[in-house]
């Protein structure tokens, strides 16, 4: 009997162990398929070895809790103590080959090139193609896979190829037609490793996809899911703009109403804990709203502004109060690498001047009113975009993980859900790249499109400035006096988007007063184009693929009255400047009537506008050493101003 009981006991024990094993296995399998990143709960030992890096970034903070990798073109930050100077690597499931004579990273500038450009910031003097400049690592399998990926590999993708077009007439490196926007996704087979906890869910605007020039809205879910391995907090999504309807074509007067409505609604999140900086912002708002009336202000011509009194007081308070904390995390070239030439130069110049600033920057984040996220969307595209890829979800994922890094290392992002953080981005894709994970931030965007999620009173319209010389960014500024401007209207440029072909249809070679061209003969330093800008009364600023165009600032630079033809474009510094005082804004539908509209403007009125263009010019000029009221200070002021009017104390 004793042996029988012992046998039954052992049998029951074995069955119990077997059942426990099955249960554990089932849980592991369930969790594997339940998490969006596949096997992200497995130990780090399961993942691919990384290529060794060398060098370090001068801006890199110590003990950063990440090291970026790209698996199937998706960047993941997943390792501690990263100090590499050249950002993410491209690897497949087998380790890529290493080459001693090249940096095995895609699209990165060599160390010798970086060293040769230290004095003026990172840039290429020949304005190379953003796409063609992407260089691959030794293993070509990744790029081949990227090229061959079908629609199933991305969310909402199409096989549309992207091409780079050069605008010969304006001498500009023209921007790429944006590929469709995509919800960041990683296929189940993609191996990643992350060490983050749950994310903040951003209240992003509707995403807009672009396929073959047509635009359509993708659906917007009830919750923005950034992934389950994030260091920020999950919150239910709210439709912030539900009470502020936006018309199909938003006029300047309607934009004015939207701005006032947003400021009146106080839409920023209430901070999770109190801060002295919050009280200072509230005090600044009170002083701005009750600013003493002034009429004659040195260097400020009152008709140029919505309210010169409030602008003057706000600017004074910015100089006296504002403190900005600049995050040092992140590796070059996406972070801390200012690109100072070409049509995306605004984000680079701001980064360069902000990171070395001694007046506004503070090293103590507890004193900061604003937090700057110093990444370049131009360098993000230059570094990570794979030529002819229908998706840039890997770039979105890169920025997402950067937010996770910031939120995981510092407490300040979660204090306001990023509402006191800001970014400065000039690339066309920036609205889509930042619309989810940075939706609560103040976004200074060149592509300031009402229909692409630009939020009045929070976001800032960033001037798109084409810079030819990093050593002398104001070179060739100015133009002919009004009496010697013999051409009524001028435009030259590539046929990008749908508006310019319409402009050509009605005005190309149709009227001697209307100098409307597709292309101009090549000339040294683009002299023919510049001469037309300097000698025309009105300069046509017709949208291309996106609403923004460097011609708006070029017209001001050459003292030509800008004629903006771009529905739903929010002009730069909209919260401060009275654009109708020095520019002509024409709906796209009125292109056939362009000449009659311009001729209907009395000569006296034209002379006033041309004079005001010269006076407003100071706000659109870059200086190697910033001066009062210049473009650097105006960008910073608009960010400050919008934060002041959206801040809420605990």
UniProtKB/TrEMBL annotation:
<keyword id="KW-0735">Signal-anchor</keyword>
<protein>
    <recommendedName>
        <fullName>Exostosin GT47 domain-containing protein</fullName>
    </recommendedName>
</protein>
<keyword id="KW-0808">Transferase</keyword>
<feature type="region of interest" description="Disordered">
    <location>
        <begin position="88"/>
        <end position="134"/>
    </location>
</feature>
<keyword id="KW-0812">Transmembrane</keyword>
<keyword id="KW-1133">Transmembrane helix</keyword>
<keyword id="KW-0328">Glycosyltransferase</keyword>
<feature type="domain" description="Exostosin GT47">
    <location>
        <begin position="319"/>
        <end position="599"/>
    </location>
</feature>
<feature type="compositionally biased region" description="Basic and acidic residues">
    <location>
        <begin position="121"/>
        <end position="130"/>
    </location>
</feature>
<dbReference type="InterPro" id="IPR040911">
    <property type="entry name" value="Exostosin_GT47"/>
</dbReference>
<keyword id="KW-0333">Golgi apparatus</keyword>
<dbReference type="InterPro" id="IPR004263">
    <property type="entry name" value="Exostosin"/>
</dbReference>
<keyword id="KW-0472">Membrane</keyword>
<feature type="region of interest" description="Disordered">
    <location>
        <begin position="189"/>
        <end position="223"/>
    </location>
</feature>
<comment type="similarity">
    <text>Belongs to the glycosyltransferase 47 family.</text>
</comment>
<dbReference type="GO" id="GO:0000139">
    <property type="term" value="C:Golgi membrane"/>
</dbReference>
<feature type="transmembrane region" description="Helical">
    <location>
        <begin position="16"/>
        <end position="33"/>
    </location>
</feature>
<dbReference type="GO" id="GO:0016757">
    <property type="term" value="F:glycosyltransferase activity"/>
</dbReference>
<dbReference type="Pfam" id="PF03016">
    <property type="entry name" value="Exostosin_GT47"/>
</dbReference>
């Amino acid at each position: 009997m004793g042996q029988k009981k012992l046998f039954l006991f052992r049998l029951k024990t074995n069955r119990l162990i077997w059942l426990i094993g099955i249960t554990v296995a089932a849980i592991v399998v369930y969790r594997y398929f339940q998490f969006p990143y596949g096997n992200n709960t497995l130990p780090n030992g399961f993942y691919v070895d990384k290529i060794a890096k060398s060098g370090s970034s001068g801006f890199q903070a110590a003990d950063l809790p990440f090291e970026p990798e790209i698996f199937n073109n998706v960047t993941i930050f997943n390792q501690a103590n990263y100090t590499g100077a050249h950002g993410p690597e491209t690897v497949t499931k087998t380790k890529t080959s290493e080459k001693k004579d090249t940096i095995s990273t895609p699209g990165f500038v060599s160390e010798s090139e970086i060293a040769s450009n230290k004095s003026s910031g990172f840039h290429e003097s020949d304005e190379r193609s953003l796409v063609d400049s992407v260089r691959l690592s030794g293993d070509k399998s990744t790029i081949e896979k990227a090229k061959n990926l079908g629609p199933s590999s991305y969310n909402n993708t199409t096989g549309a190829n992207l091409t780079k077009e050069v605008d010969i007439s304006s001498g500009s490196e023209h921007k790429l037609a944006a590929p469709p926007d995509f919800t960041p996704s990683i296929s189940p087979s993609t191996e990643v490793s992350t060490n983050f906890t749950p994310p903040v869910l951003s209240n992003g605007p509707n995403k807009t996809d672009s396929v073959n020039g047509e635009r359509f809205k993708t659906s917007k879910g009830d919750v923005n899911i950034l992934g389950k391995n994030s260091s920020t907090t999950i919150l239910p999504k709210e439709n912030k703009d539900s009470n502020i309807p936006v018309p199909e074509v938003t006029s300047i007067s309607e934009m004015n109403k939207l701005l006032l409505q947003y400021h009146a609604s106080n839409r920023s999140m209430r901070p999770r804990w109190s801060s002295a900086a919050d009280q200072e912002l509230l005090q600044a708002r009170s002083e701005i709203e009750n600013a003493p009336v002034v009429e004659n202000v040195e260097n400020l011509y009152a008709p140029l502004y919505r309210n010169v009194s409030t602008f003057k007081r706000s600017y004074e308070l910015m100089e006296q109060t504002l403190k900005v904390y600049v995050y040092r995390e992140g590796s070059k070239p996406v972070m801390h690498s200012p690109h100072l030439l070409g049509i995306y130069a605004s984000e680079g110049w701001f980064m360069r001047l902000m990171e070395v600033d001694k007046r506004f920057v503070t090293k103590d984040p507890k004193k900061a009113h604003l937090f700057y996220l110093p990444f370049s969307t131009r360098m993000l595209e230059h570094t990570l975009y794979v030529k002819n890829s229908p998706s840039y979800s890997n770039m979105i994922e890169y920025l997402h993980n950067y937010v996770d890094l910031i939120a995981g290392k510092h407490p300040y992002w979660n204090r306001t859900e990023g509402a006191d953080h800001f970014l400065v981005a000039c690339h066309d894709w920036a609205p889509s790249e930042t619309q989810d994970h940075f939706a609560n931030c103040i976004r200074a965007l060149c592509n300031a499109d009402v229909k692409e999620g630009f939020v009045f009173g929070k976001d800032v319209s960033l001037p798109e400035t084409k810079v030819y010389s990093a050593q002398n960014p104001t070179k060739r500024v100015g133009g002919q006096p009004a009496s010697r401007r013999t051409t009524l209207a001028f435009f030259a440029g590539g046929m990008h988007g749908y508006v310019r072909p319409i402009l050509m249809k009605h005005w190309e070679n149709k009227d001697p007063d209307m100098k409307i061209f597709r292309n101009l003969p090549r000339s040294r330093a683009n002299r023919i184009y510049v001469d037309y800008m300097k000698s025309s009364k009105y300069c046509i600023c017709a949208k291309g693929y996106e609403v923004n165009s460097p011609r708006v600032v070029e017209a001001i630079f050459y003292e030509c009255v800008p004629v903006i033809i771009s529905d739903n474009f929010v002009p730069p510094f909209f919260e401060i400047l009275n654009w109708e005082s020095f520019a002509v804004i024409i709906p796209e539908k009125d292109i056939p009537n362009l000449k009659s509209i311009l001729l209907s403007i009395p000569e006296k009125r034209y002379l006033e506008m041309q004079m005001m263009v010269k006076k407003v010019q100071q706000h659109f000029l870059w200086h190697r050493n910033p001066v009062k009221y210049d473009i650097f200070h105006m960008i910073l002021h608009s960010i400050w101003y919008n934060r002041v009017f959206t801040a809420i104390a605990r």
